[in-house]
Write a structure and sequence with these properties.
The chain is mainly beta and 254 residues long. It contains one helix and 14 strands.
Length: 254
C-alpha cells in the first residue's frame, strides 16, 4: 500500500512496519517541509458558498474569502473546543452591496458592526476562547481607507486618534489634492443638523481644546494660510486677525 500524506501540507506518513529503510528518507523530507512552513508560513483559505446563509466552516480553514452577491446571514461552524484560542479572518468583497447579518454570538468591539464597502474589499478579524459561543470582531486596519465610512452607534465616537507624548509628527495630515476641473471639492466637509432649541449645553460645530501648561506667548490656536502665507489667525489669548500682512501683531505679549 502506498504511503499516505497529511491533509493540509502533504507531509509523508510512513507505513508502520512496511517502510524498512525508508523512514529516514521520509522524515528528512518532512523536516525540510516543516522548516519551510515555519520559516515562511502559508495558510489554506476557504471560499464559502454565498447564499441566504453563508457558512464559514472552521474544519476547512481559518481564513474565508467571498464576495457578497445577495442578502445573507453569516454562520460559523465546527470551531475547536473551548480549551483553545481561535482566530479567523474574513476577506469580504462588496460587503456593503447587500445587507449582511452577523450571528448573535458576535460582539463587535467598536460597539457597532463595521460599515463594509459596497465596492471594495474589507478584512474583519474574529476571535473566540469558548468554542464559538462568543466571537469578538474588529475590522483590520486596512478596512479604514479610501471611501471608508465610519458609522458609530448612539453615544459612540466614530474615530479617536490618541497621540503619544513622544510623538514628533502631526497627528493627522491631508495633502496631495488638486482641483483641476469644473467640479469643486472640499478638503474638509462637516455637516450636522441642529433641531432642538433647548439643547444644554449649547452645541458647537468645532471644538479645539488646548491645555496650555507652558507655551510661547506668540502661540496660535489657528492659522489659515494661502500660498504658505498667513491670512487669518487666532492667538492663544483670543486675538484674531484677517489682514494682508497675516498674523503679525496679533499674538500675545512677549
Amino acid at each position: 500500500m502506498a504511503n499516505t500524506t497529511t491533509a493540509t501540507f502533504q507531509f509523508i506518513k510512513p507505513e508502520v512496519a512496511l517502510d524498512t529503510g525508508q523512514w529516514g528518507t521520509h522524515l528528512n523530507a518532512d523536516l525540510d517541509s516543516l522548516d519551510t512552513e515555519l520559516g515562511k508560513p502559508r495558510y489554506p483559505f476557504n471560499s464559502p458558498t454565498v447564499g441566504a446563509t453563508t457558512t464559514c466552516d472552521l474544519s476547512l480553514a481559518r481564513t474565508f474569502v467571498f464576495t457578497l452577491t445577495q442578502v445573507s446571514t453569516l454562520a460559523f461552524t465546527n470551531p475547536p473546543s473551548s480549551s483553545f484560542f481561535v482566530r479567523i479572518v474574513l476577506l469580504i468583497t462588496d460587503g456593503g452591496a447587500f445587507a449582511l447579518t452577523w450571528p448573535a454570538s458576535v460582539t463587535h468591539l467598536s460597539g457597532v458592526a463595521p460599515a463594509l464597502k459596497a465596492a471594495g474589499v474589507d478584512a474583519v478579524e474574529l476571535v473566540t476562547v469558548n468554542g464559538g459561543t462568543n466571537w469578538y470582531a474588529a475590522p483590520l486596519a486596512s478596512s479604514i481607507g479610501p471611501s471608508a465610512t465610519l458609522t458609530p452607534g448612539t453615544g459612540q465616537v466614530a474615530l479617536t486618534i490618541t497621540q503619544q507624548a513622544s510623538m514628533t509628527a502631526d497627528a493627522l495630515v491631508v495633502s496631495g489634492g488638486s482641483v483641476t476641473g469644473t467640479t469643486p471639492k472640499n478638503i474638509l466637509n462637516l455637516a450636522e443638523t441642529w433641531n432642538n432649541a433647548s439643547m444644554t449645553p449649547v452645541p458647537a460645530a468645532v471644538v479645539l481644546n488646548i491645555t496650555d501648561t507652558a507655551s510661547p506667548n506668540k502661540s496660535y490656536l489657528a492659522i489659515l494660510k494661502k500660498d504658505n502665507a498667513p491670512r487669518f489667525c487666532v492667538s492663544k489669548i483670543g486675538a484674531f486677525g484677517a489682514l494682508p500682512q497675516g498674523c503679525s501683531g496679533r499674538e500675545g505679549p512677549d
